[in-house]
Write a structure and sequence with these properties.
With about 450 residues, this protein is mostly helical. The protein has 3 domains: about 30-250, no CATH class; about 275-320, no CATH class; about 335-455. The chain contains 19 helices and no strands. Helix 5 (about 75-95) packs parallel to helix 15 and helix 15 (about 335-360) packs antiparallel against helix 16 (about 365-385).
């Protein structure tokens, strides 16, 4: 009997261990599974979740297809994943200001040190981190200076799991102060755990596949609640800021149930796929408004009032126009199927290039690799925008990879495909260079480059 109980206990432990990755995506973890004493010991859950992101996006597409609904468009999906990769590159270059500032406050001003290994500490942190996220998220919509970065996340006119990946690279510079009160009693390691779990929970609620969760709608932030948050219908504006628990919106008067068909995106949509413009265009528009507004008081109001504010209007503005659901109005430039396939393949080739070349143990490669990544992702956006420079950009990008490969050919590689992948990569880049050179010649010979581009 004892042996049987021991075997069942071991089986349960093994099952919990094997399913930890998927359960992390839904915050379905126990304190005993995700409690660490030191910040450096905390797993990078967001990076470990990347395979689960891709798997869930694939499953979502299958379900939508089975329901005879439109699957996520290629241009929008790649653009969302591009923003996620840009965030990853940005995090390599910038110190984690949120964790550093939190740890400094905890070391110098902690009022009461909650025990790091207590389940009570774990649950207190889960609730307080979620509350901190609510207030940051609310201010990100109600303060124009913060909205300039957060608008990146709302720029998609689609609503699917890939939309969750469309994150701002500079939002961390505005979010960290909202969590500092927790540093008075919650250990940094426990804070970091829940900051990641809270973010991962919000991935799965970016979908139209799930309609309602019944009684759980009263407590949890669900796809239905978050669809409202991403809407630009007048009834959706400045509503449902919750991260995991919708109770904060119910408590603080910002809750709104889903009603009319939600139209997604910004009140003034971004009609472009250029990811750099998507990341930082909000600051350019803010700067223009600041310069064009007369009077220092009004200039400061441009920065610290809501995005819809203008002189004579209330703090958050008013007069959001009515919209009707019309998928045909979403930004999209007719793109040949072959070009969509090309961009999709080359998006993952960019990731593969980074993996292969970064494994060659050459510190001089770091800066060129990051530059290559940013410029390559930007050029894919320009291809979908039909930008006249994009064909030449592809030639330069492919040639750049070939040069980096030749320069570092003698160093050790960590190619996942055992050398075969490197030759596939080389062949792909040489072929791409040749194809785009021929297309450039074709465009030069034509009288109307833009019209000819659409025929490619």
């Amino acid at each position: 009997m004892f042996d049987l109980l021991t075997k069942m206990d071991n089986t349960s432990s093994m099952l919990l261990e094997k399913t930890l990755g998927p359960r992390v995506m839904f915050y379905l973890v126990f304190p005993s599974e995700a409690t660490y004493q030191h910040v450096n010991d905390v797993p990078k859950y967001t990076q470990l979740a990347i395979p689960h992101f891709l798997a869930m996006m694939f499953i979502e597409a299958i379900i939508l297809y089975a329901q005879n609904k439109k699957i996520p468009p290629v241009d929008d999906t790649i653009n969302s994943m591009t923003h996620a990769l840009l965030l990853f590159v940005f995090q390599i270059l910038v110190l984690p200001i949120g964790v550093l500032s939190y740890s400094w406050v905890y070391r110098n001003y902690c009022v009461y040190e909650l025990p790091w290994d207590s389940p009570w500490t774990w649950w207190i942190a889960a609730i307080t981190v979620d509350c901190g996220y609510y207030w940051f998220h609310r201010m990100a919509h109600e303060i124009n200076l913060f909205w300039a970065s957060h608008q990146t996340h709302h720029s998609s006119e689609q609503y699917n799991l890939s939309t969750a990946l469309r994150q701002s690279t500079v939002q961390q510079f505005t979010s960290w102060p909202f969590y500092l009160p927790l540093a008075l009693f919650v250990p940094p390691s426990i804070f970091l755990i829940h900051r990641q779990l809270n973010l991962l929970y919000q991935f799965w609620i970016h979908t139209e596949v799930v309609s309602t969760l019944g009684p759980l709608e009263w407590i949890l932030n669900t796809p239905s609640h978050h669809r409202v948050h991403h809407g630009r219908n007048p009834y959706c504006i400045d509503k449902n800021y919750a991260g995991m628990l919708i109770i904060w919106d119910r408590m603080f008067g910002t809750f709104q149930p889903e009603q009319d068909r939600v139209v997604y995106g910004l009140v003034h949509p971004n009609n472009y796929w250029n990811p750099l413009r998507g990341q930082y265009g909000g600051y350019w528009e803010l700067l223009k408004r600041f310069c064009q507004t007369e009077g220092m008081r009004n200039k400061l109001c441009v920065l610290f009032m809501g995005p819809g504010w203008s002189p004579g209007k209330p703090r958050l503005g008013d007069g959001v126009p009515e919209v009707e659901y019309d998928p045909s109005q979403c930004y999209h430039k007719p793109t040949p199927r072959w070009l969509e396939v090309y961009c999709f393949i080359h998006f993952f080739l960019i990731l593969y290039t980074m993996q292969v070349l970064s494994g060659r143990k050459n510190e001089l490669l770091v800066a060129p690799l990051l530059l290559y990544c940013v410029l390559s992702l930007t050029n894919i956006g320009l291809l979908f925008d039909h930008h006249p420079f994009s064909p030449m950009g592809e030639v330069l990008r492919s040639s750049f990879v070939i040069c980096l490969d030749l320069v570092t050919m003698g160093t050790t590689s960590t190619d996942l495909m055992g050398g075969v992948g490197v030759w596939i990569l080389r062949g792909s880049m040489i072929m791409s260079s040749c194809i785009w050179l021929m297309l450039i010649i074709k465009l030069i010979c034509s009288n109307n480059n833009n019209k000819e581009y659409k025929k490619l």
